[in-house]
Write a structure and sequence with these properties.
It is built from 5 helices and no strands. It is mainly alpha-helical and about 70 residues long. It has one domain. Helix 1 runs antiparallel to helix 3 and helix 4 crosses helix 5. The longest helix has 19 residues.
C-alpha cells in the first residue's frame, strides 16, 4: 500500500516537471519560492499523504518549514 502511494506521488512530481518542461536538475536551478515549485508542493499535500519532509525534498523547497511557509502565503 505504501509503495502505491509513493508511486502516485512520484508520478505527480514527474507530471509537474513535464508540464513545465523541466528535469529535476532544471528545477534545482530555479529560485525556491518559485510558483511552479509551490504548485507542486500544494498538489503533493492535497493529493497524497506523503510526509512534509518527503514533499519538501521532491518539490525542492528545502525543509518542511520552508515548504509550510510557502504554502501559507
Amino acid at each position: 500500500m505504501r509503495n502505491r502511494i509513493e508511486q502516485k506521488a512520484k508520478g505527480l512530481v514527474l507530471e509537474e516537471l513535464r508540464h513545465h518542461g523541466w528535469t529535476g536538475q532544471d528545477m534545482e536551478k530555479q529560485r525556491k519560492p518559485r510558483a511552479a515549485r509551490v504548485r507542486m508542493a500544494t498538489r503533493l499535500r492535497c493529493e497524497t499523504v506523503m510526509a512534509w519532509d518527503w514533499s519538501a525534498e521532491r518539490s525542492r523547497l528545502g525543509c518542511r518549514h520552508t515548504m509550510a511557509s510557502c504554502l501559507k502565503g
